[in-house]
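User: Please predict structures.

Assistant: First:
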Amino acid sequence: MRVAADREVCIGSGNCVFAAPAVFDQDEDAGLVVVVIPDAAPQHLDAVREAVAHCPSGALRLVED
């Protein structure tokens, strides 16, 4: 599965980084989401799903390969 983030929609809340720090980060300029590992490994999928579910702006999604 691939992780996608829409930085135009992101509000920089940081929920994604809290839920899945191995997969997400925030840039230093605006605090917007950065996907560090776009191809989510199986061990990260539960955390990524949590991040997607709790993103207040809906900027995150999982894309089937």
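Second:
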Amino acid sequence: MRRKEREMDREFGLRVIDKARYGILSMVGEDGEPYGVPLSIVRAGEVLYFHSAKEGRKVHILKENPGVSIAFVGETRIPENYTKEELDEMAKDDSKAKLLISNVFTTEFESAIVTGTVKLVKDEDEKIRAMRLICEKYTPTKMKYFPMAIKFGLGRANVYRIEIRSITAKRKKYDEYGEEMKWGRM
């Protein structure tokens, strides 16, 4: 990671994964072309789960090349570190250009990138557990209807697991004084 001062630990990365609304699964097709797709992904310990249709480009690629990377984005925000008056003063002084670029034209963010190998889940009990976790994350108020949905839908979907091989996590965040919170400042 180039910006080591923004690198966060594994636990931070796991929290980003858990709260992210989706992850972007990136893979490489047999033609060498990259392919990425947003997915509803859930984590259980050191394993990620997602589901898909039984056929399609993603399914075909994963059979041929199961090595993947998944990018997750947590919270993002445009910081307001300066008042309009402070910005007007800054704009009068060319020596403030770097400060303007790095602290005004910027975004606070948190992200995690996972690498791993995708495996099709064949065990029915694991498939149901994974689908339950996915539904609890994305449709928690509808769990009363989960038994019927799983009864009629499980056979129509693939469920995949990814054992987390590595996680890198990164964050850019400012404190209430407009100072960037480097590594170690939570």
